[in-house]
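Assess this one:

_____
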Amino acid sequence: MAVLDKKLELMDAAAITGIGAATVSSEVLDLGTGYNCWDVANTPDIGEGGDLYLNVRVATTLSTVGASPAATVDFYTHTAAGVASGTRLIEATIESAAAAGADVMRYKIPAGKVSRYAGIVVTIGGSTLAAGALDAWIGLDSESPLPTR
């Protein structure tokens, strides 16, 4: 079992319901701006010291109304706090009938590609998702049995 850093938790049983609605993670990671010894601003270096993984797991079983919707989970990064308008680094699809505890994704975060802000954007397409929630976090270890992508 791995240790979870609360500040690297992007979603904690966050509801993802609606028709075509884009839900931004309840927490947006702010990596801040560091300065070197010459007082020059550094860019964030997430993942450069070792591999970091984005883990997403179903917290509450997904339930649909009507046809099965397709849902996507995207990891975005941006120089401003509005991550949804930034650069998408990772994308995965969620099964419409995913049960609680199911692992959705485990991706290695690309080193040197993350800007100051990072977060998750979930988009529901197709029909209505009546119920469902996700957990998402960044960890040092791959914390699911899924193969690393």
Remarks:
- The chain has one domain: 6-139.
- The chain is about 0% helix and 50% strand.
- The mean pLDDT is 78.
- The two ends are 21 Å apart (CA to CA).
